[in-house]
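In response to the reviewer comment on reproducibility (Comment 2.3), we provide here a single inverse folding case reported in full, input and output, so that an independent group could reproduce the run without further information from us. The structure tokens appear first.
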């Protein structure tokens, strides 16, 4: 099972669906760097860094192992918000094409593209003027 980092509306169940989600993500995120892996027992965390369309994107994968030692659950966390929204806007169509989501879900995801652009512009041009030390 994979818990979506972008919505609580659904989870992906089974190896096929989870593999398709990762394959769609790898279509978009080609320069993934594993920064750290930590954990013990059934709980492990993988910290990855990459870019989406030239913008920084970080992810945390919280992996929960089953009794058989294989990954039973994956919960993803993505930051910063503009990158997460941009990923959501772009991955939906790929998940539809792979048969994981219905077409209406891809359309809903794609409708977030203007919001991703707006959040990206705010992050790039407004937030640097508002952070600590700016006056």
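Designed residues, in position order:
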């Amino acid at each position: 099972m994979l818990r979506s980092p972008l919505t609580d509306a659904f989870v992906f169940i089974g190896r096929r669906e989870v593999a398709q989600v990762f394959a769609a993500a790898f279509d978009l995120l080609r320069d993934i760097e594993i920064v750290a892996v930590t954990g013990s027992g059934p709980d492990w965390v993988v910290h990855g860094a990459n870019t989406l369309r030239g913008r920084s994107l970080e992810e945390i994968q919280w992996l929960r192992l089953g009794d058989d030692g294989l990954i039973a659950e994956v919960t993803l966390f993505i930051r910063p918000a503009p990158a997460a929204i941009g990923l959501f806007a772009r991955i939906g169509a790929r998940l539809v094409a792979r048969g994981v989501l219905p077409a209406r879900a891809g359309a809903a995801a794609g409708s977030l593209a203007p919001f991703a652009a707006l959040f990206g512009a705010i992050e790039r041009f407004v937030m640097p003027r508002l952070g600590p030390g700016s006056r």
